[in-house]
Amino acid sequence: MEDVARKKKIYVIAANGNDPGNSPVDSNSAEPLACPTPGPASIPAQNNTFKLALAALGVVYGDIGTSPLYTVRECFNGPHAIILNEVNLFGVVSLIFWSLTTVVTIKYVGFILRADNRGEGGIFALLGLIVGSNAKLPPQVRTTVVLGAIFGAALLYGDGIITPSISVLSAIEGLEVATETAKPFIVPLTCAVLVGLFLFQKRGTAGIGKVFGPLMILWFLTIGTAGLLEILQAPRILAGLDPRYAWKFFAANHLHGFVVLGSVVLCITGGEALYADLGHFGRRAIQFSWLGLAYPALLLNYFGQCALLLNNPAAAFHPFYGLVPLGLLYPMVALATVATIIASQALISGAFSLTQQAIQLGFCPRIQIVHTSAEVKGQVYIPTVNYALMIACLLLVLSFKESGRLAGAYGLAVTATMSLTSGLYLVAAIRVWRWPLWKALPPVLLFLLFDLSYFGANLFKVFDGGWITLVTAAAITTVFTTWEKGREELKQKLLANRLPLESFLSDVARHRLTRVRGTAVFMTLSPEGVPPTLLHHVKHNHILHEQVVLLTIQSADVPVVTDDLRIRLEGLDQGFYRLTALYGYMETPNVPRIMKLAAGCGLTVEPIQTSFYLGRETLLTTGTSRMMRWRKALFAFMSRNAANPTTFFRIPPNRVVELGAQIKL
Question: 613: exposed, middle or buried (C-beta count within 10 Å: 0-12, 13-18, 19+)?
Fold first, then answer.
């Protein structure tokens, strides 16, 4: 009986009895025991394509849907404007048409949306798809892929700063078209709208999300109708569908024509949002809403603006509002402002989701995350990110004051991210899906032809303000890579001197330590060895709880881990258990929830008699780590200012004991 009692037991919560596959399991372990499980995480059925398409219109297309406010105007009225004549007009409208068709419709809607990671999209999802697959990447390729994904994500933060600023500013500038007396009020009104938008974030978007879709339908129908009416006045503008006009444009303007691409690219900003929001709406809903309404409405408006300029070149000052009858100008400004707020909301929410993913992937220190909806999955609010974005947006508006000047900074981040997405897609096609080169290379080369051309054209914007996004991306990349490297170095330091668990359990049995009632949960970075907090506790207090749980929370290379694959519970000797919990990169760990799942597998858990032991490390930068000294200092600073683990992991604060230690890096 004693041998049976001492035999290691492993419980795995799995509907099919299989191991989750993210962390190693002893192949000689006992068979998983049956235990009650909560079942898969509750995810609403997504089989109503029309309703999801309506919701997608209010979230996915806000950015790209408001691009007509400034795209054509910047081509003929910006710092790198081209002369307004028929050759250039037909060339620009041809470039806009083929950009929307090739980059958004073919690349993203046709190809990239299929590169989902268990239904989720975005550059971090693509990274997880590559590194989490069975594909064995050479170390240099893996490092390049990870750095590319991190830098692409960092660039999206830059996009999240510029999009609200330029969108709201360009919408309110419509008042200047109606009356010159409104000009002094444009910047203050823009700042007021932005402040209100960011202050509203703490309430969450679940409530107003229901009206976003209908408002964007009204927006697309309005701009499409306005464009169609103008096309009927000058139908010859439809000749711009011929790609030869784009060729004639470059032949006539040479380098200047290439520079104007930096303005044309504004028509596809927001294309990356189609991929990032894949998990919220599904591929079919996004395709349906794009092809059914957004794409044709945008084309009609762009062709309508260029048709207007054929007949009235003086309207180049603001061709979008030139399509609107004077009596409807103020309602149009109001509708445009609402549309730009929706566009800004999508980018702000995207920054929150991106930060949550970065934390779970180990690229970012813990930050306070507030879940704003109990019903809608993924509705999060991050105060630190929110107020940082607000301050950055206000500084941009106050510095640039005009959307035309701000457009000089716009586009560089978007085109760089699109290029990186194309590169990662090629790696996924070859390494994950095992496509032959003849199948994978042609479409990606076509995508890169557009992406790199736009990126090259936007390099001319570096000194016009594009440096802002590059500096922002470089700073965020430095933070992410430093945190990842620092955590790895810290983990190695902690593991180097770890006592094997078997030796510790033998010592516990031999010394017969006093055992007190209740459960002690020791949180540890690694499922191997004895956590330092446990050793410190025994060393100073000379007692143990009758039940000791060693809890490790690990990140999976998938967006969401269902509850039936969430935990692994391993029974050890002397009342010890090793508990491992898996969380996807779009989830926030919840320790009380983990303990409830463990109770379903036979672990006795009394919340009132459970104490949680956490380690608090004081980092010293005088060690022999391979990290540069400035990176050590940065990592130590971030570690000191990371969110309290008690709050982050949702542990009851009155049940927490912290034990400190000094570690030299």
Answer: buried
DSSP-assigned states of every residue in 457-508: HHGGGGGGTTHHHHHHHHHHHHHHHHHHHHHHHHHHHHHHTPPPHHHHHHHH
Query: For the range 310-319, what are the long-range contacts, defined as Cβ-Cβ under 8 Å and sequence gap of 24 or more?
Result: 310/86, 310/89, 310/234, 310/236, 310/237, 311/233, 311/234, 313/84, 316/73, 316/76, 316/77, 316/84, 317/73, 317/77, 317/177, 318/73, 318/173, 318/174, 318/176, 318/177, 319/72, 319/73, 319/76
Yes or no: say if 560 and 41 are a contact pair by the CB < 8 Å rule.
yes
What residues contact residue 567 under an 8 Å CB cut-off, 6+ apart? Answer: 13, 579, 580, 581, 582, 594, 597, 598, 601
In the Cβ-directed half-sphere of 463, how many Cα atoms lie within 13 Å?
A: 3
pTM of this prediction? 0.80
Tokens coding 266: 């504004």
List Cβ neighbours of 664 (8 Å cut-off, separation of 6 or more). 493, 620, 621, 622, 623, 624, 625
For CA atoms 330, 335, 336, 337, the dihedral sign is positive
Distance CA 41, CA 562 (A): 5
Distance CA 492, CA 624 (A): 12
Q: Which of 421, 403, 342, 404 is nearest to 59 (CA)?
A: 342
Is residue 237 within 8 A of residue 72, CB to CB? The reply is no
Non-local CB neighbours of 235 within 8 Å, separated by 6+ positions: 307
Q: Which among 284, 52, 333 is positioned nearest to 172, based on CA atoms?
A: 333
Give the separation between CA 502 and CA 392, rounded to whole angstroms: 53
Contact 115, 121 (CB under 8 A): yes
In terms of pLDDT, which residue wins out, 169 or 295? 295
Q: What is the percent of the chain where pLDDT is above 90?
A: 36
> Count of CB atoms within 10 A of residue 16's CB?
7
Confidence of residue 379 (pLDDT cuts 50, 70, 90): low
The answer to whether residues 525 and 491 touch, using CB atoms and an 8 Å cutoff, is: yes
- Domains of the chain, each with CATH number or no CATH: 2-34+488-664 (no CATH), 54-463 (1.20.1740.10)
Closest CA to 56 of 380, 338, 335, 289: 289
Q: Decide if pLDDT at 32 tops 70.
A: no
For all residues of the chain together, what is the average pLDDT? 83
- Nearest-angstrom CA–CA distance, 579 and 591: 11
CB 405 within 8 A of CB 418: no
> Tens digits of per-residue pLDDT, 198-249?
988 877 655 555 667 788 899 999 999 999 999 999 999 999 999 999 999 9
Q: CA-CA distance, 488 to 490, in Å (whole number)? A: 5
Q: How many CA atoms lie within 13 A of 234 on its CB side?
A: 20
Are the CB atoms for 378 and 209 separated by under 8 Å? no
Mean pLDDT (whole number) for 183-187: 88
- Looking at residue 9, its pLDDT comes to 38
Give the containing element (helix H, strand E) for 546: strand 543-555
Nearest to 416 by CA among 130, 149, 144, 160: 149
Question: Which range in 60-64, 195-199, 280-284, 519-523 is most confidently predicted, on average pLDDT?
Answer: 519-523
The region of weakest confidence among 45-59, 191-205, 337-351 is 45-59
Q: What does the DSSP assignment read for 98-137?
A: HHIIIIIIIIIIIIGGG--BTTB-SHHHHHHHHHTSS---
**Model pLDDT for residues 463-489, shown as the tens digit of each residue:** 877 888 888 899 999 999 999 999 888
Phi, psi of 380 (to 5 degrees): -130, 155
Centroid of chain to Cα 450: 23
* Greatest distance between any 2 Cα atoms in the chain: 96
Confidence class for position 341, pLDDT limits 50, 70, 90: confident
User: Which of 80-84, 98-102, 654-658 is modeled with the greatest confidence?
Assistant: 98-102
